[in-house]
Every structure is written in C-alpha cells, then in structure tokens.
Amino acid sequence: MQLIVEKDYEAMSQSTMTLLLSKMIQPKKVNMAITAGNTPKRTYELLVEQVKNKPHFSNVTYFNFDEIPVFDEQGYGLTMHHLNRLYFKPANISSDQIMQMTPYNYLQFDDMIDKAGGLDLILMGIGADGHFCGNLPNTTEWQDKTVRINATEKHKELLLNEVGGDITKVPDYWVTMGPKSVMHARHLVLFATGKSKANIIKQALEGPITLDVPASILQLHPNLTVVLDEDAASELTKK
User: Fold this and answer.
1) For FRET with 25, which of 19, 70, 177, 211 sits at 20 to 30 Å CA-CA?
2) Looking at residue 66, which CATH number applies to its domain?
3) Which residues form the signal peptide (predicted)?
C-alpha cells in the first residue's frame, strides 16, 4: 500500500487528480471506474481543466461501479446523474467513452469489463460506516462480483438524503461491483478528507479484515494507493 498524506483537501484533490491523469495519459486504451459523491468534487474540477476537448484523452473509457435506481429526466440513475454533473458534462466526455452499469445490465457488467480489457484503475471514497462502492457492512460477501442488494429499512433511511428527503423516491435495491470485482482491478485509489473519516480510515487500513468494515479488504490489494488530508490521516499509527 502506498499512503499519500497531504496538508488539506485542496492538496489531496491535486494529488488525486495527478494520479488519474498519469494513468490516462498513457499511449494505450485505459479503463477507469470513478466515484460520485462530495469528496471528488475538487478533483474533477481540476481534471476538467486538463482533459476538456483534448482528443488524446479519447483513449479513456469510464465506468460507474454502482447505481441507485432513482432516475432523472434523461433516464440516468443517481450515480450516473452525479457523474454527469460533476465530470462527464463539464469535461465534454463523449458518450462513446462511457460504459454504464444499470439495474438492467448489472449481471453482464463483469463480462463487459473483461471484454474491454479489465479495469486499470478504480477511484473510490469510503463511507463513515466503512463501505466502498455500494458494499455496505454485511451486505456482500468477499467472493461477490457485481450484485443487486435489497435495501433494508435502515438502508432506506440512509438513502433518504440521496433523494432529497422524498420517501416516495427511496428505492428498494441498488446494484454494485462486489468485493471480488473491485479486487480484480489493476490499481485501486482510495481517498478521504476530514476528521469525520479519521476513525474509519484507521479501522479500514490498520484493523482486522472484516465484513463489518468492508473497506478493510482493500488492505490485501497488491496495488492500493490511499490519498488523505492530514485530518483524515490523524488517527493512523503507521504513516
């Protein structure tokens, strides 16, 4: 594991952007799965400045690694809606470069990735409960590939914020790349910011490997890069 600790969110975002850009600029086809959420907002702003309308980045194909079936007016699920808003549209990424996981094709998604040559990189955050991608505590097993997860009442409470507090929009399930699918990627990049993530980062990186903290499995990946700001890294003992 490579650990990169930066002073603050801006510096952490810059380092994450540089990692992505160094992967993308290779003179070959590159496949990346990227995350939505709050943490990557600045990373994507910086990346847009580097890649927008530059044909030499047409070698990159993007994947979403999970999807929540709450559809916008264009028919995109919640994850793709946010990826469009944060990165794809501002960077003017061609639809030909985007391979979507949906609630309808998730059973074929691992085959789609294999046929594309596998994933060179996955960029992911970590939840306060230790989840990565859509793998919440005790919802998947280590051997799971891309799966559908049925939402419990507790999960529906967590999803309520994702749908603006409208209980009628809370879905009964979501789909996600499971641990086995994620661990097959050639390079994993995990990033986090803020004191609120410090304890779960410690558990995930220095604690036992357990389904109670799903991200703990990432310790076993042979090419894991973790990018943190000082606050998120503040409880680690091995820096």
Assistant:
1) 177
2) 3.40.50.1360
3) none
Q: Among this protein's residues, is 56 annotated catalytic?
A: no
Determine the Cα–Cα distance for residues 131 and 211; give it in Å rounded to an integer: 9
For tokens 């590159």, what's the residue?
30
Q: Is residue 108 part of a domain?
A: yes
Q: Catalytic residue among 72, 129, 172, 212, which?
A: 129
Reference 121, options 179, 68, 63, 53; nearest CA is: 63
Global pTM value:
0.95
66 is known as an active-site residue:
yes
Q: Is the dihedral of CA 231, 64, 55, 29 positive or negative?
A: positive
Count of domains for the chain? 1
- Facing residues of 239 across strands? none
pLDDT in tens, 16-72: 999 999 999 999 999 999 999 899 999 999 999 999 999 999 999 999 999 999 888
Summarize the confidence of residues 172-186 as an average pLDDT.
97
Q: Chain centroid to CA 131: how far?
A: 10
